Amino acid sequence: MGRQLGILAMYWAEGKLEELSFFRRLCIYGRKLGLEVLVFTPDDVDDSKESIHALTYSHSDGKWIRKWSALPPLIYDRCRYRGADNYRKITSFRNKYKNVDYLSRPLANKWTVYEVLSEQEGIRPYLPFTVRYQSLKDLSQMLKKYPIVYMKPKNGTGGRGIVRLQRLGSSQIVWMEGRDPSRRILPQQKIHIRQIPAKLSSWKLEELYLVQQGIPLALKDGRVHDFRMLVQKDGSGEWQVTGCAGRIGPRLSVTSNLHGGGTAVPMEILLRNRFGTEEKVREIKKDAYALGLRVVKQLESKFGALCEAGIDLAIDPKGDIWLLEVNPKPSREVFRRIGETANYRKAHLRPLEYALWKLKRRKPEEETSGMDE
Ligand SMILES: Nc1ncnc2c1ncn2[C@@H]1O[C@H](COP(=O)(O)OP(=O)(O)O)[C@@H](O)[C@H]1O
Ligand SMILES: [Mg+2]
Fold it and tell me: Under CATH, domain 110-127+219-339 is a member of which superfamily?
């Protein structure tokens, strides 16, 4: 097969790869498009030959097979942070093979992303006010301004280490609840904010934490919710919103992440339930989609290549939209969970179609012939 896309992955346990079923779909769809998808980790690279011992899914045999191949000219990097050892390997791979092109480059931490997004006037009004945690004073000042405040680690994922503080009247007594760094639920407790640094003493608040205006997101039954939007480049290199879905957190959770037990729901159903009129729903959706596109363009202009992003959005009781977080390596699972099969498919196809478009535009001398065995 002519054109190849490498998927840079990571072993998370003895020989086990993350996201294998996602990669399997990419192999199958890729084949239909005339793109060979080769999954590999830094451990599968033979530096002396610049070749990789890759995994590829053989549809006809219904199984994964290993094959040697030249290093593909374009890479879809799906590595998430999994400890210092893995990180070192990935960084050394990225530094060694500078001539390789990537669909996306890593984004910065949540604080830097916040700073870069707030530079853009069309985005700033959508950002919950955020500061870095430097001392208890930051908490007390934020709680004077906002009845709900979230604390979250700037490198966190999946709702780990996230705490919600809810002011009780005007005092410094708050309801504190959330998830610890292993994502276990911290039961609600009434606490004076002075006690928080000691309570969370192992969490490295000064080094890692942001303090953010909390958006009221409780539904009638008390569960919290938000939205996950997937924005991707298409087969002409243009940004498109692939879809957006609601997520409802489990009972007693202040986060809605699917990995933390959240449930996915179609966006329209959630919005219609909350806001009633079709017109309001349409207006919110239009505004949210336009915001999503502005966000990826701004990030791409500051951090370099990006092919997709999963954007966490909150919509408050007035219908105002807030941007909570941007994920550069989003999952596509929400669409499967709500039965939007066309969007689920599109979410897999788009990075492949975009990769093909990029490969076709490369100068001929950059094309590798591919040394399949
Ligand atoms: N400022 C906020 N107001 C209300 N809810 C929030 C806020 N920040 C985070 N959340 C809740 O916590 C979840 C996880 O936060 P997020 O910033 O996306 O971090 P993570 O990287 O862990 O997913 C969100 O999906 C949302 O449910
Ligand atoms: Mg998130």
Answer: ATP-grasp fold, B domain (3.30.470.20)
